[in-house]
Structure formats: structure tokens, C-alpha cells
Amino acid sequence: MNRIGCHLSTSKGLHKTIEQCLEINADTFQFFPRNPRGSKSRLIPDREIEKFLKLRDTHDINEIVCHGAYTMNLCSDREDLRELAIKLINEDMKKIRDLEIDNYVLHPGSHKNQGIEKGLNLIVEGLNQIDVSNGQKICIETMSGKGSEVGFDLNQIAYIISNTSIPLYVCIDTCHLFSSGIKLVKFDDYLDEFDKLIGIEKIKVIHCNDSMMPFGANKDRHEKFGKGLIGKSDLFNIIFNERLEGRPIILETPNNLDGYKIEIEKIRRKFHELREN
């Protein structure tokens, strides 16, 4: 079965995330390496890193995902903001290297009325300046298409991957797919197209979120698992799709720890039901 977890805060220390995983029966998790709405990053003491690594290995909490800050925009219409994004991503690469984490999810950016073509080429230019020499896997997230957002169309993601000199991967987000107009009831058709344009092996992370907004709304509003307009059936069909076996499943639903525990137990229970049948 795929590893299942949720987004957790590291404000009380990285080792506390392992304790939270055990509390909610998760075997992976996602976190921000810095303020998601800014640029500040906490310096993590070596002693905290050592404790985190030891606890992670002891309890087999792996395939951990680091999510880049929302404010980083590789295709901004301002050169200084593009340069800042490159700087911060490279800092994050060093941080996850020290934490022995590979998966790094990144929103590709918003072109700010420069046009999709200009935006795509600026993203490529920026990513070509990122150091992933220690094996870090940058995963471009599929987006909902709000405003001038880039990455809501497979052709856009394929362009970025095929024109960038560093290896790139993909994080699919169920809410974003639904909001961008992908019919999840026909998810295998989407995977067929993905495999043709990019290759399914490039999918490394699954964000499992229901949607508050209707199909094709191009608005990013997450809902609790099975409580939104996607529904449990289609979400189960995605996360238990045999072609996506082995990818970590991350819940970014509007929940507290108790809510995440309920959702994780619901997913695990359904998996065992399907296996028994």
C-alpha cells in the first residue's frame, strides 16, 4: 500500500512531526521548510536533525515530502523576485539534503500577464539554475489554473520537463485536477495522456484533496476527504490506482490532527476492504 500522511507543522521541532505521525497512524508527511507566505527559514540545529533522523528510521516514517513556499515565483514579471525564488529553492535543496529528504514539491508560478509562453520559458530558465546534484527530486505540482497560474495543463508541464536540464518530476493534486477540468471519473484516460506526454514514472507524489469548488472552476479550495464535490469514490479510484502504486499520498485537507487521523483510518480501511475482495 502507498504511504499515507498529511501536512504537518515543524514549528515545535522536526522530531515532533514523527511523534504526530505515530499519533495519527501516518507513515509519511509533508512540511514547509520556511514560512509558506514569506521567505524566512528557521535554522535547524544539528542536534534536532540527528534526533529527527533517528526517530524517522526507528519508526519507518519515509518518502517524506518538502513543499516549497507559495511566494516563490520563477516566472514573475519582476527579475528580483525570480532571482529570489532561485535563491530560496537552492537554500531548500541544501536543507533537504541535510535532512536526507528527496521529494520537493514546487508550484511552477504565475506569469503575471506576460503570457504562457513567456512564463514557461522563465520557469525553465530558473530551474536550470537549481542544484539537485545530491539527488533531490523537484516535483512540479499540477495546478488549478487560477489567474495567470502556469501548470494547469499537461502540455505546459511536459514543456517544462522536456526543456529543463535538470531531472524533474510531478506531484498530482486531485483538487487541482478537478478544478482545472480533468474528469476524475475517467482518471485512467488522464493517466494515458500523462504517460504519452511525460511518462507515469515521473509522478512521485499524490496530493489527495477533495474540492469545495465545482468542476472546471479554476479555483483552489480544498475540502475534507469525501466531503466535497469530488467525493470518496473518485478519490479512492485515484489513490488506489495500480499505476500509481508506491507514491506517497499526502492529505492537505482543512483538518486538525484528529481529523487527519480519521481520514487516514478511512483510507487504510478501504484499502483492506479492496484487498480482501
Number of strands: 10
Computed CA radius of gyration, to the nearest angstrom: 18 Å
Give the rounded overall mean pLDDT.
Answer: 95
Estimate the strand proportion. Answer: 5-15%
| Helix and strand sequence | EHEHEHEHEHEHHEEEHEH
What is the molecular shape?
Answer: globular
Going across the biggest sheet, name each strand in turn.
Answer: 1-2-3-4-5-6-7-10
- Helix-residue proportion: 40-55%
Largest sheet: 8 strands, parallel, barrel
The helix/strand class is: alpha/beta
Q: Termini separation (Å)?
A: 15 Å
**Which runs of at least 5 residues are low in confidence (pLDDT < 50)?**
none
Q: Count of DSSP helices?
A: 9
Produce the secondary structure layout:
Blueprint: E1 4-7, H1 14-24, E2 28-31, H2 46-59, E3 65-67, H3 79-98, E4 103-106, H4 116-127, E5 137-141, H5 154-163, E6 168-173, H6 174-179, H7 187-197, E7 203-208, E8 210-211, E9 222-223, H8 232-239, E10 249-251, H9 257-276
Parallel strand pairs: 1-2, 1-10, 2-3, 3-4, 4-5, 5-6, 6-7, 7-10
Antiparallel strand pairs: 8-9
Helix pairs in contact: 1-2, 4-5
GO molecular function: deoxyribonuclease IV (phage-T4-induced) activity
Binding site for Zn(2+) 3: 176, 220, 222
Function: Endonuclease IV plays a role in DNA repair. It cleaves phosphodiester bonds at apurinic or apyrimidinic (AP) sites, generating a 3'-hydroxyl group and a 5'-terminal sugar phosphate.
